UniProtKB/TrEMBL annotation:
The keyword Heme does not apply. InterPro entries: Cyt_oxidase_maturation_cbb3. It comes from the Bacteria. The chain crosses the membrane at residues 6-26. This is Cbb3-type cytochrome oxidase assembly protein CcoS. It comes from Rhizobium mayense. The gene is ccoS.
């Protein structure tokens, strides 16, 4: 049971760290363009093979 003295604060710290990382990602604009990647994969840019010289 004495291990809980270490594990409970560690779990709380890791949870707070995860919430902090999530809030940071919201503030830095990570979720601003949710459809951009799905449209970029359908584009034809860069599909042509490089010409050998």
């Amino acid at each position: 049971m004495s291990v809980l003295i270490y594990l409970i604060p560690l779990a709380l710290f890791m949870g707070a760290l995860g919430i902090g990382a999530f809030l940071w990602s919201l503030e830095s604009g990570q979720y601003d363009d949710l459809e951009g990647a799905s449209w970029r994969i359908l584009g034809n840019e860069g599909d042509a093979p490089d010409e050998e010289q």
